[in-house]
Specification:
The complex is a heterodimer of chains A (182) and B (510). In chain A, 65% of the residues lie in helices and 4% in strands. Chain A is built from seven helices and two strands, in the order ααβααβααα. Chain B is built from 21 helices and two strands. Classes of the chains: A mainly alpha (182), B mainly alpha (510).
């Protein structure tokens, strides 16, 4: 099954309807498909070209112990970079001259959603950075309280019992049952 | 397969820890299926972090049971709230939800569980009888054929998982390029290591997989979530089908079983595609096609049978050829490699007992899932009310801790987090993650075999060996088919446009 999906609760049943070429009964339209974006498509093409050129450049700079020439350790990544450059250039040209692709397989992000996702990434990074310094048992409950609050949890049961229970469960599962140090 | 291997494979399942692993997998799989937005591949990626410390059979018991369990749980929200629990249950909504609205939710849930079990069991026959011959054929493959096989798997995944073939190809190339980090597979020279010791053994692919399939999906849900309440249908009505309803289900079951097995065997194609094809075929063959989409038991049977019958086909392709049959299997291959098992033809000669254990786990998991879903469905339905914040926090913590436990090194967690951010950007810009993972897993195999083939026999060998040429031709067709279909649609659209314009302009002229 495809890994994609997002939250289908917000997609209603439109993917099914589209894929089946049929209109499903009683379709509830909760979905807000993302808008096509020409600048985004152009940025994708330009980024692909840039990364592929860097790959070719870095592949040529690989140092090998025995110079044999031809099909050596540089050959494969360089080939990938060259093919990537060609495909990226095609994507870029296509993005410039043709209308942007439909994006009905992803939902439009909300302002609140962007804030939530960025704060979640920053929180996770802080958690990972402080874990080795202060220890799992100290930093995990704090991280869980902050994350639960960020995701909309309120009330003392949600903000105290849940983080404490979750930390204890993870600790018992790994350290006690699976003998994995945390 | 000799009797000793069969006996060893079955006796491995009698270990109580395997039973515990299956119970955990069943619980997790069912929960994963119930909560929309959490896919089977995400759950297996997450669980792979936990199972690496277990023995292969114990770990496979957990992962395969999640795979099976998700196929039961995902039908519940499809039927009760018109929302597929995983993409594999998309087609279930077409007739499952209308049945529930007509007061036949209980019948839909029970029928769905029964045909799902039967579909999985029938598809396991394919695994038991076809996997070994396919693996034996693949044992004859030389470097040229192996390279062409990887190219074939990658192009199929690109053509299925992406709207834009070019973006899919670029995603596959990115995976192949990431796989070149570390030691060269032939000479052992370091590439793209930049003095960082951790990079010598390449990027940790379990961390990349958890990032791309697990945390990226979570970040995407955080981005798009809008609060709204969907009340599940609470009146379940009668549970068991009558004799005439069983008869009604027989024909769509037969047709969809075959469709599911064939689609499942195609690399990267899964239950979502099979379910829709099965539903469509059953509608065309039905005596009452007008009832499809309005609460037809035949439609529900066809969709769920086809989706579940993909499991055996996907398992066959994965274990016999080493090419993932679907995205869950791509993740599973990652775990198996960590355990020192290389799925593919050699698995059948090196570990025949494990192949039997895998088949046994699938069969037992399907039967136990049926019993649980028949007995506990009423209780499971209540879980649909669980607030999102518990779910999201749980996923986030399990992604981080699960990744850490794969190496006891925070570096791995950073790789996972960065992969997650890259994954969500990819998802939102239309680059599919599947080809990246496939490229990452199969990159060393593709590179080593291509270089060997070229060094030994020259480039002509790729097209002069019949199997290699055939696989490359199929790869070209896989890439060309979506492009041709797109061109045909565009031509039809251009032709229709003047007609529509002509029709709409007529009243103005008057």
């Amino acid at each position: 099954m495809p890994a994609s999906g997002g939250d289908p609760r917000q997609e209603g049943v439109s993917p099914a309807a589209l894929a089946a070429g049929d209109t499903p009964p009683e379709a509830h339209d909760h979905g807000f498909p993302a808008h096509p974006s020409k600048p985004m498509e152009i940025a994708c093409g330009a980024f692909a070209v840039l990364v592929s050129i860097v790959l070719v450049w870095q592949a040529r700079a690989v140092e090998v112990r025995a110079e044999t020439g031809g099909i050596d350790p540089r050959w494969w990544p360089e080939l990938l970079g060259l093919v990537g450059t060609a495909l990226g250039a095609f994507l870029l040209v296509r993005a410039v001259v043709r209308p942007a692709l439909e994006r009905d397989d992803v939902q439009e992000a909300t302002h609140q959603g962007r804030v939530r996702a960025v704060v979640a990434i920053v929180l996770s990074a802080l958690y990972v950075a402080t874990w080795p310094v202060v220890g799992f048992l100290v930093v995990t409950p704090v991280f869980l309280v902050a994350a639960t609050y960020l995701f909309g949890g309120r009330g003392w049961r949600t903000l105290v019992l849940f983080p404490a229970g979750m930390t204890a469960f993870i600790y018992l599962l790994f350290v006690t049952a699976l003998k994995v140090p945390l | 397969m000799n009797a000793d291997a069969v006996a060893e494979g079955i006796s491995a399942l009698l270990d109580p820890t395997v039973g515990i692993g299956m119970l955990i997998g069943l619980l997790v799989g069912t929960l994963v299926g119930i909560f929309p937005g959490i896919t089977g591949s995400m759950a297996v990626a997450l669980a792979s972090g936990f199972t690496l410390t277990l023995e292969p059979v114990q770990g496979l018991a957990v992962l395969l049971t999640i795979y099976v369990g998700a196929n039961y749980g995902d039908r519940i929200p499809s039927i009760l709230v018109n929302t597929p629990g995983t993409p594999a249950a998309i087609a279930t909504t077409l007739d499952g939800y209308p049945m529930a609205r007509q007061g036949r939710a209980g019948l839909a849930l029970v029928s769905s569980s029964m045909v799902t079990t039967a579909g999985i069991l029938v598809s396991m026959l394919l695994f038991l009888f076809a996997a070994r011959p396919v693996a034996q054929l693949a044992l004859e493959f030389g470097p040229a054929e192996m390279f062409s096989l990887v190219v074939f798997g990658l192009t199929i995944m690109v053509s299925i998982s992406s709207k834009s073939v070019v973006k899919g190809l670029l995603a596959g190339l990115a995976g192949l390029a990431i796989a070149t980090v570390g030691r060269d597979p032939i000479t052992g020279d370091s590439r793209f290591v930049y003095g960082i010791n951790d990079l010598n053994s390449g990027l940790p692919f379990i961390a990349v997989i958890i990032g791309l399939f697990g945390i990226a999906e979570l970040f995407d849900q955080l981005l798009v979530h809008r609060a709204h309440i969907v009340k599940p249908i609470s009146s379940l009505g009668r549970w068991w089908p009558t004799r005439s309803e069983y008869r009604q289900m027989a024909r769509p079951f037969g047709v969809s079983s075959i469709i599911g097995m064939v689609v499942g065997a195609v690399p990267a194609a899964g239950g979502d595609i099979a379910g829709l094809i099965g539903w469509d075929r059953a509608k065309r063959m039905s005596k009452e096609p007008e009832k499809f989409g309005k609460g037809s038991l035949e439609g529900l049977t066809a969709a769920d049978t086809a989706a579940s019958a993909t499991l055996g086909g996907a398992l066959t392709t994965t274990m016999a050829l080493g090419i993932p049959g679907d995205s869950v299997m791509a993740v599973m291959i990652g775990s198996m490699i960590i355990w020192g098992l290389q799925p593919g033809p050699s698995l059948f000669s090196n570990s025949p007992d494990l192949v039997i254990s895998i088949a046994g786990i699938m069969v037992v998991a399907a039967v136990v899932s049926l019993v649980v879903s028949l007995v506990r469905t009423r209780g499971i339905v209540r879980l649909l009310d669980l607030p999102n914040h518990y779910l999201w926090v749980g996923i986030l913590l399990f992604c981080i801790v699960g990744t850490y436990t794969t190496s006891n090194n925070v570096y791995t967690v950073w790789v996972m987090l960065i992969s997650g951010v890259v994954g969500v950007v990819m998802k939102r810009t239309g680059f599919p993650p599947g080809p990246v993972v496939l490229g990452l897993l199969l990159g060393p195999l593709a590179e080593a075999n291509l270089r060997r083939a070229l060094l030994i026999d020259g480039p002509g060998i790729l097209v002069t060996k019949p199997i290699s040429a055939g696989l490359l031709l199929l790869a070209l067709l896989a890439l060309g088919a979506p492009l041709l279909a797109h061109a045909r649609r565009a031509r039809r659209g251009r032709r229709a446009a003047p007609e529509v314009a002509g029709r709409t302009s007529t009243p103005t002229k008057r």
